[in-house]
Amino acid sequence: MQNLIAFPVIILTVILQSAVVSRVTLLSGFGDLPMVMLAAWALQEEVDSAWHWAIATGMLVGFISGLPGAVYVAGYVLVVALAKVLRRRVWQAPLLAMFSVTFAGTLVLNGLSLAVLRITGVPLTFQDAFGLLTLPGALLNLLLAIPVYAVMHDLARWAYPSLEAK
Amino acid sequence: MRNQLSRTIQTTIIFLVVGGVIALALGGYFGGVSNFFTDSMVNIQFWFSSRFTALQDFFTAPRDITTLRQQNAELQNEVAELQAQVIQLQQQVGETQILAALVDFSRARPENTYKAAAVIGRDPSPFLHYVIINRGSNDGILRGMPVVTNQGLVGRVDAVIADAARVQLITDPASMVNVRLQNAEEEGALVGSVTGDVILQMIPQDANVEPGDLVLTSGLGGSYPPDLIVGQVVNVRSRDFDLFQQATVQPVVDFNRLQIVLVIVNFKPVDISPLLP
């Protein structure tokens, strides 16, 4: 039953991304709330549904965006995989893991987007993409990371009460 | 009987005398004695009065503060409500002004049929410059329809669902608009970029392009109707070894503040892709 919470959370996150976060720009970049949310969710202990969350979020964001949906599905699955790996290795410092996944996830998603757009013939330069989109976006994502991690941590404790018992 | 009459007369006389003395004393007819008397009375009264006032304050002040606090809270709530109303009304005034400008624009171009739509979101990817509008196929919106504001060209509809549509802005890196320069009567292609700047390309080397020249859609290719204002030339880059000149264009539309747009619903874009080699 706790998996049902995924749908309102994902929908709300994507709406916030499209309506609010996309309008708060630094240079030409902006934050990626769904990616940060997925990273925070995947880093929670006993959360085993992060893969499903990643696919559902990727499909929904891909539906809204002009980019092919596969870019987001693949990107978010990679972010979750990264979070799972880091959770095992730096489990004693969850915030450090959160920052690491957020930064690496931004690079992965922007790299995938750039590659797909270049393949489809959109004239983009790596320098512009990195300097004007990726780095500012990474900074904004890192700013989002702390509050989003706190919210997802509380959500995980609510959805999986066994965490609190520990 | 006689004793009682005598006591009554004595009492009356005593009252009259004492009353007369007090009246004369209060009237200041006894000089220093009178002043001493009145001062003492006033001081005693002041002492009692001040103590009573202090006690009264002690017992009644907390109740007044509570009342004042309650009134203050109520007034603050009222102020907050009024401020919210003011903000709401200001927003409505802003929207009304935008709509009035759009109505003027549509009246000035009666050949087009417009459908107004609100911008409700932006593309989640920073690589793309798209906006989401709250009109879709239920409102007669189709893919490829041009989108404008009263200022000029915004872009065109890229994807449609029942109640929403995605609009590709002319600032999108994948966007290309065929345009002409009003003064030079030369044509070119306007392309977007990742930073939101729009560049005018494919201007012949012999064309006389000046900063300030107005850029309009040419209608070539059938994607946009002709003569929609796009922007103004800001600067021109002309190098001898290039085949074409290039110019930076300042769009007339402020894409960061897009709120309401108009979709030209009677324009049928021409799909020339089968004709391309």
Gross CATH architecture of chain A: Orthogonal Bundle
Helix content of chain A: over 70%
Instruction: Please tell me how large the radius of gyration of chain B is.
Output: 44 Å
Average per-residue pLDDT of chain A, rounded, comes to 88
Class of secondary structure makeup of chain A: mainly alpha
Largest sheet of chain B: 6 strands, antiparallel, barrel
Q: Measured on Cα atoms, how large is the radius of gyration of chain A?
A: 15 Å
Q: How many distinct beta strands of chain B?
A: 12
* N- and C-termini, Cα separation of chain B: 147 Å
Shape of chain A: globular
CATH topology heading of chain A: Arp2/3 complex 21 kDa subunit ARPC3
Summed up, the domain count of chain A is 1
H and E order of chain B:
HHEEEEEEEEEEEE
Could you tell me the CATH topology label of the largest domain in chain B.
Thrombin, subunit H
- Indicate the low-confidence ranges of chain A by residue numbers: none
End-to-end separation of chain A in angstroms reads 21 Å
Shape of chain B: rod-shaped
H/E topology pattern of chain A? HHHHHHH
Specify the oligomeric state.
Answer: heterodimer
Spans of chain B with pLDDT under 50 lasting ≥5 residues? none
Greatest interface: A-B, 33 and 24 residues
